[in-house]
Amino acid sequence: MKREIRRFRTASAMAAFAAGIFKKALLKKPGLFTAALPGGSTPLPLFDLLAGMELPWDRAVFLMTDERLVSASSPRSNFGAAAARFFSRVNIPRRNLLRAEARDFSRRLAAAAPGGSPDLVVLGLGADGHTASLFPGSPALKNTSPASFVTAPPGVQTRRRVTLTLKTINGAPLVILMAAGAGKKEMFARAAAGDKKIPAGLLNPRGKLYLLYSPKE
């Protein structure tokens, strides 16, 4: 695995860098290009940038790295946030949007990504070191299925969730971990150092891992 650590002054600069990686990867690959996107506030500037790009969106297949088990219209829905800021603003065929909580998700992911993993996985970072909905100490960290239903720790909003597993994430040729805010500086450093005591430190894709950080949200 190759690793590249980048620090940016602003979240917008970080998003622009990530958007450049996305564009290059999509244009480089013939046929379908599958990308998993994160929830939370960190990727919102990235979504806005992607929505303004003219790319062959009919070749792009999207899914979320994790999802809260709520309605897509809920403000807590990761898919809903991505749809509002990105999917609805470009010409992406509905069939190219995979819902991780759907019963046929594993089959549809296998059809879109024959290798079992997306071509690109973009992840966020939690203050406790979690990424996607893979929390410290969660049994899902050892799950070898494409995705796993999980229960988030007490105190976390919307505890019932579904998440891509480490096996699926690490099978991707390209992974981007994005972290924003001074409160995540320490956890980002631990993730960048490969600290296996936190889920984000277990990222080990078969290709390249980008670790991006901005002190400003």
Q: What's the helical proportion of residues?
A: 25-40%
Give the N-to-C terminal Cα separation: 28 Å
Q: How many separate helices?
A: 6
Helix-and-strand structural type: alpha/beta
The name of the CATH topology is: Rossmann fold
The CATH architecture can be named as 3-Layer(aba) Sandwich
Question: How would the global form be characterised?
Answer: globular
Give the beta-strand count: 10
**Average pLDDT across residues?**
95
Low-confidence stretches: none
Short description:
With 217 residues, the chain is α/β, with parallel strands linked by helices. 25% of the residues lie in helices and 23% in strands.
Question: Topology, pairings included?
Answer:
Layout: E1 2-7, H1 11-28, E2 33-37, H2 44-51, E3 60-64, E4 66-68, H3 78-85, E5 97-98, H4 105-112, E6 120-123, E7 147-151, E8 160-164, H5 166-170, E9 174-180, H6 185-192, E10 208-214
Parallel strand pairs: 1-10, 2-3, 2-6, 3-5, 6-9, 9-10
Antiparallel strand pairs: 4-8, 7-8
Describe this structure as you would to a colleague.
The structure is a single chain. Helix 1 packs across helix 2. The longest helix is centred in the N-terminal third of the chain and has 18 residues, at 11-28. The chain is globular, with a radius of gyration of 16 Å. It has a single domain (6-203), classed as Rossmann fold (3-Layer(aba) Sandwich), CATH 3.40.50. With 217 residues, the protein is of the alpha/beta class. The chain has six helices and ten strands. The strands form two sheets. The protein has a seven-stranded parallel beta sheet with strand order 1-10-9-6-2-3-5, with helices on both faces. Strands 4-8-7 form a three-stranded antiparallel beta sheet. It has helices at residues 11-28, 44-51, 78-85, 105-112, 166-170, 185-192; strands at residues 2-7, 33-37, 60-64, 66-68, 97-98, 120-123, 147-151, 160-164, 174-180, 208-214.
